[in-house]
Amino acid sequence: MTAELAAGDKAPDFRLARDGGSTVSLADFKGKKLVLYFYPKADTPGCTIEAKDFSRLHPAFAKAGVAVVGVSADPVKKQDAFKAKHALSTPLASDETMKCSRLTESGRRNRCTGKNTWASIARRC
Questions:
Q1: In 18-54, which positions are buried (b, 16+ CB within 10 angstroms) versus exposed (e)?
Q2: CA distances from 35 to 1, 45, 67, 68 (A)
Q3: CA-to-CA separations, 23 to 15, 28, 67, 68, 70, in angstroms, rounded
Q4: Gap between the Cα atoms of 49 and 42, Å rounded
Q5: What are phi and psi for residue 15, nearest 5 degrees?
Q6: Average pLDDT of adjacent 10-residue blocks, the chain of 125 residues
Q7: CA angle 108-100-45, nearest 5°?
Q8: Does residue 2 contact residue 102 with C-beta atoms inside 8 Å?
Q9: To which H or E segment does residue 52 belong?
Q10: Stated pTM of the model
Q11: Phi–psi pair at 31, nearest 5 degrees
């Protein structure tokens, strides 16, 4: 089990496959600000709204010097389809093993329902 991380803590390193067939890692953003947002499943109503909002706000994040990457447990092929279907501008990473989600404590199993729950958490790179 990973120690509890607080907002502003240094993010643990990761490397994930991403849309378009390349990879993304924390090292890619060394010395830069990064928002990792986690969502449970591509192309579901709530996740689509969130992804569209991050894409809509992409210019404002870029102007502020902040990169944005969406992360879910979906395979890259599904991420590619999701991105194309909704014309998303932010990179989408595939965390099929949920290793990154566990490292950041963003993906957890709810003890009562048995379902995965997700949260976006602020971390320093």
A1: bbeeeebebeebeeeebbbbbbbebeeeebbebbeeb
A2: 23, 21, 6, 5
A3: 7, 10, 15, 14, 13
A4: 10
A5: -145, 125
A6: 61 88 92 87 90 95 94 93 96 88 57 47 41
A7: 60
A8: yes
A9: helix 45-56
A10: 0.78
A11: 80, 5
Distance CA 44, CA 112 (A): 22
Return the structure tokens found at 87.
């014309």
Separation CA 87–CA 113 (nearest Å): 33
Contact between 35 and 67 (Cβ < 8 Å): yes
Question: What single letter denotes the amino acid at residue 88?
Answer: L
From CA 99, how far away is CA 102, in angstroms rounded?
5
Catalytic residue among 47, 100, 112, 125: 47
47 is catalytic: yes
Looking at residue 65, its pLDDT comes to: 94
